[in-house]
Amino acid sequence: MAGVRQFDEAAALGRALEVFTSRGFRATSMLDLAAGTGVQRGSLYHAYGGKEEIFLRVFRAYAQRFLDDAAEALARPDTSSALLSFFDYCIGAITRGTPSHGCLSTRTALDASRDAPRIDTAVRELLDGLETVVHDGLTAIKDGRGLTVEPRAAARLVVTTTRGLAVMERAGFDPDQLRDIAATQVSSLVAQPR
Q1: Whether 166 contacts 102, CB under 8 Å
Q2: Under 8 Å CB-to-CB from 70, ≥6 apart: which residues?
């Protein structure tokens, strides 16, 4: 039937995300996507357009899940445990898999965004969204401890640290070493009780 997809769209897009996560945007071809999804290249073009359109579709869904899970990780009763939980979530996300797959958004920012303005915008939207999630999570906590800097600056610093952790993971730092880095960041951001 015309107009009816002859493949499981959710499964195909999930596998496309795996291909992009494994290979990166720039190194992924439409042939790679066809092989990875089990959907013929012509059907992918017909259904979604080219590689960039497929990437944007799966990246935006990935970004929304990531932001939702990050907000959940921050939902803790005190500032220190909220930030440690958030960093633990982020570290788990980048070290998952064998071998670990790293951070799709950081990889994309370094790999592809300057050549593809729409992808650059999507990555920036994720990072801005993550800053807002962290800011809102921190300002919702009323544990009386406070931060050593104002909440927006703290949120931006936390997001920047997540990007640094992603690079350190690619350089061979293990999850425990990454958690140590995160713990140091948390101790510098959370005011100590008097």
Answers
A1: yes
A2: 86, 89, 90, 130, 133, 134
| 82 closest CA partner among 186, 194, 193 | 186
Q: What is the pLDDT of residues 20-56, one digit of tens each?
A: 999 999 999 999 999 999 999 999 989 998 999 999 9
Q: What is the pLDDT of residues 109-120, one digit of tens each?
A: 888 657 789 999
Domain ranges of the chain: 58-189
Which tokens hold the place of 53?
């359109």
**Could you tell me which CATH class the domain 58-189 is placed in?**
mainly alpha
Determine how many CB atoms are found less than 10 A away from the CB of residue 152. 14
pTM as predicted: 0.90
Residue 101's contacts (CB-CB under 8 Å, 6 or more residues apart) are: 21, 22, 94
